[in-house]
Amino acid sequence: MTDATAEATRTVEEIAQEFTDLCRQGEFDEAGAKYWSDNVVSLEPGGGDMARCEGRQAVQAKGEWWSNAHETHGFEVGQPVVNDNQFMVNFKMDVTNKESGMRMQMDEQALYTVDDGKIVEERFFYPAPPQG
To answer: Has residue 37 got a pLDDT over 70?
Structure first.
C-alpha cells in the first residue's frame, strides 16, 4: 500500500484526531502539510486578502503571514467533532498583533471538509476582532 493509498483509506475520525493532535502540539504547519489537498480552499469571515485562499501554497502563505503578524502567548485546541465527511474544532488563542500591539483573546471554530483522505476546505468562524 502506498502512502497516498494509506492516507485515502483513513477514516474522517482518524484524520480529524491526527490533525487535531498535531495542532495541539503546536505543529500547525505539519498538520497542514500532511492533510491539505493540493487544491485546498481556506475561507475566513469578512473581506480582505486572506478571506479566500486557494491552493496549498496560498494557504501555507496565509499561515506564514499569521505567524509573522502575531505573537502567540498561548493556545488551546478542542476535541474534533465529526459529522460525515466534515469535522469541527474549537481554537482558543491568546495573541498580540505585532503591528498594533493589541493583545486579543480569540475563540474560533474551524470546519474542515475531507475528501479522499485530504482536507479540501477549511472554513473559520469567529466574531470580528476589536478595532483599535
So the answer is: yes
99-129: per-residue pLDDT in tens? Answer: 999 999 999 999 999 999 999 999 999 987 6
With contact defined as beta carbons under 8 Å apart, do 51 and 65 qualify? no
Structural contact between residues 42 and 59, judged by C-beta atoms closer than 8 angstroms: yes
Tell me which CATH code domain 3-125 carries: 3.10.450.50
> Can you tell me the distance from the alpha carbon of 129 to that of 127, in angstroms, rounded to the nearest whole number?
6
Gap between the Cα atoms of 94 and 74, Å rounded: 5
What integer pLDDT is reported at residue 46 of this predicted model?
82
Letter for the amino acid at 24? Answer: R
DSSP the chain: --HHHHHHHS-HHHHHHHHHHHHHTT-HHHHHHHHEEEEEEEE-SS-STTSEEESHHHHHHHHHHHHHHEEEEEEEE---EEETTEEEEEEEEEEEETTT--EEEEEEEEEEEEETTEEEEEEEE-PPPPP-
